[in-house]
Amino acid sequence: MNNQVDLLLINGVIDTLHQEHPRVTSLAVKAGKVHSFGLHAEAAAGPGTTVIDLDGAYVMPGLLDVHNHHMLAGQMDLFELNEAPTKSLDELLSAVSEYAERLGPDQWIVGGSWGSGLLSELNSSNALARFDAATGGRPALLKDDSKHNRWANSRALDLAGIDDGTPDPEGGQVMRDSSGRATGVLIEAGGVLVEQTLARLQPLSTQDLARAAARGIEILHSYGITGFQDAAASLQLLQALKSLDDSGGLLAWVVTSMQANDFIFGTTPLGEGIIAHRDETRSEHHRPDFIKIFLDGVPPAGTAAFIEPYLSGVGFPECHCGGTTMPAAELEHWLMSTAERGISAKIHCTGDASVRLVLDTVAKVRAAGYHQPKYHIAHGQFVHEQDIPRFAELDVTADISPSLWFPGVIPDAIATVLPAERASKMQPNRSLLDAGARIAGGSDWPVSVSPNAWEGIYGLVTRRDPTGQFPGTLWPEQAITLAEAISIYTTNSSKAMGLDDVTGSLAPGKSADFIVLSDNPHEIDIEKLPQITTHQTWFAGRKVFDTEASARAASGPRGSEALQA
Which of 260, 269, 264 is nearest to 236 (CA)? Predict the structure, then answer.
């Protein structure tokens, strides 16, 4: 019987996040799992063991992302126009025009992003005419930075059957100019008709979706991410992930959140239609264990649900508080009926009223005896002070995405629709931790420009913009420590996603998911934290990213083919 280990790391600074052996210099891997540390690890090596001398390099568990849309990010990278939301309208239209020249006359221009702050500028007949000219008659649909709202050109509106007389759909709005003409700006569910038209006229195959998912995971690997939760999964994505895993191509732990409702993506089927296929799409590395509920929208569009009103005079009705996408009874039905089947829930809430409704509903679920399901309040930028202790009391995770709230495009847009005192009080992270709550870290990529967890960690610790583009500090009293922030992207997230049995720390028997970094985050100046890069990413004892190999592949084929070459 062969007892030697497959892989041995020596001469490193290895933080395991495992309580019994928090820092070691050597680590052994066997059959894709952590085997042993220190002298025991070195003694388990044999002639067939691959030995890697780290030469003092820093190693830690793979990072985890509790909230992203990896397949959408892969689609954007492979198939779509992908522009930064900081661009002006002129810059965006110039990029659209250049992109359009490479397409056939009837191919759709799909992608984004346009910044939330451009909404009023886009909402005019003049802007639509400029958009039509830039696209050269091709249909076009561009998402905003939140991915909740759309801008469609005239050709896309015509194909979707949206004209000046089209009524607003439930949960959305077709924006119009002063003469009542549709401007192409589609708020929330206002964009679903165009999304469904795009899916019908220019569909992506399961193979394309699998390729997009794999590309998204490749990009995540380059940032040291070895496990994540896709925050709004369709049946097609579940099937693509199952197909990937069956073929040996799913090289990450993936938890999916099956969409219970949708007023953004145009997904079909929804709810029970996806849940019915849950078991058949489960695989070794894919766990379809959550539903996803969109309970409100986003503050800049006035669709987030607040206890107190938005500012007056900013385009909303007087005393406008927004609203939830479903009444309390419907939310209770969803959480009770899924809890009976052991299904957890991730619930999108950006206003404090929607946060409170979730907490009230989870209290009923817990009182009914359902303690196993996991509940995530996703985003939760705004939490009423009285509700902060309830996260720990009800075992509800605060799923946060720092890139959406440290100083930047989205907070600037929020500041235009909320009173200054409220707009500046986003993400009470220190208060949540002090109250015993679990915080888990997500990127909401590609809503955020990148899934770089070190930028998020920097934002948690400093409450500043890691890119330096936006000055100032947002509610600095809510800063947390570096150790707490790293836990948020490792052990906390593994617990929140239900992956703590296999990953989140380097403990014997757990998956050998680890990363080799450019710097030890505990020893460098905090201002250098966002510049930390991943030299290598390992998943289940297999190297899935290497900086040098990636650089060599960059000049070759794109995407999956490049990294496999």
Answer: 269
CA distance 190 to 150: 8
Residues in the chain with pLDDT values less than 70:
1, 552-565
Would you say 344 and 289 are in contact if contact means Cβ atoms under 8 Å apart?
A: yes
Q: How far is CA 52 from CA 4, 466, 504, 518, 562, in A?
A: 15, 33, 22, 16, 25
The whole-angstrom separation of Cα 2 and Cα 326 is: 59
Integer Cα distance of 43 and 437 in angstroms: 41
pLDDT value of residue 558: 41
Q: Distance between CA 279 and CA 288 in Å, rounded?
A: 8
pTM for the full predicted model: 0.88
The pLDDT value given to residue 555: 52
Cα–Cα–Cα angle for 275, 278, 284, rounded to 5 degrees: 155
Laid out side by side, the sheet with 63-68 consists of 63-68, 225-233, 253-259, 286-294, 344-349, 375-379, 396-400, 439-441
Instruction: Quote the pLDDT of residue 559.
Output: 37
CA distance 132 to 164: 17
Closest CA to 20 of 434, 536, 506, 513: 506
**CA distance to 63, 302, 306, 475, 476, per residue, from 423 (Å):** 30, 13, 12, 10, 14
Reported as a single tens digit per residue, the pLDDT across 145-199 is 888 899 999 999 999 999 888 889 888 899 999 889 999 999 999 999 999 999 9
